[in-house]
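Sequence, structure tokens passed on for absentees:
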Amino acid sequence: MNPGCRVREFLLVAVFAVVAGGCATRPAVVPDPALAAKPEALSVLRSLKSDPALEERILALDPERISEDDVRDTLAKGPTPHIMLLHGGIFPVHLVMVSAGRFLTGMGYPESKIRHPGDHRWSHSPYEDSAQLAGLFAWYYEHDGMRPMMIGHSQGGIQAVKVLYELAGRFDNPIPVWNPYTDASDERTTIVDPLTGVARPVIGLSVSYASAVAAGGAALLLPNQWSMGGRLHTIPDTVDEFTGFALGLDLWAWTLAGVTDSSEFRHNGTAVVRNVALPAAYNHVTVPMVGALADDRAARDWIEAYVPDKTTSAPPPEAAGYGALWAADVWYSVKKHWALEAQRLIRAKRAVLGRP
């Protein structure tokens, strides 16, 4: 793998998208009534049919030490939260997040928990209504019993933080639940909390994990992001853990080498916020284009062994030209919060319904 191959890969898929996009339309959605309907109180817990032995293995996992075997033999066989990918704003940069999605599925994450359940797209546009994305987040939580994760790139990173502010009630209030099958409001602003059976508003829900890479700079001058000026780098309490990735010498995001005062993310309350400086050689547009890394054994081994702030070895030569550090850090956090959310759901089931 090398930078030239990565650029050629991007150009090929971009040309295909331009050619195919002229006649492509979103597929018609015929929702399964059982999936599209509002769940009854505690129905998610009652429908959790995990094998007791599998539940015990999930509960025994150390979320900060999830191996490749743990993913394949345990996590992938149990409950899984949805991941919302948010791409940048210039066509065809959304294809970069398709590559990121394929990296995650290549590492073992279920594809159905990344793609939109209605039209099956891989990622969301930063021009979508952020309140609708918050309402969709609530719909996923109500139906899965696990809080989704968000991964944003460029303007999509700004949008991810904007959704956190929506959930904090800083913009739209109230926020309607957004149904992915009908692509419309459910005409309600509350959900039935799947873990307690109690009604609660969309506002006040929290995300387990969110991240933003190459976010900020020129994109904040766009009208749809004006409201994020002065807010982007301050993370509200509607996320457990947030990671901000800054590229060195990023002219689009207006960042210099390392994490500086202008690029550093910080919390304003309880959120755990990390800042990761990525190499200056990484490209603003293509840094999440890491799908090929999951297919290379040497790169994959390094990614699986990666631990934030503890891994000191450089990515192997096979990963040259790809955003391996970004991929490794994101995958570590995804595994961690996948395990935490699955454990949270199983414990809630046992507390409310008793052991299987």
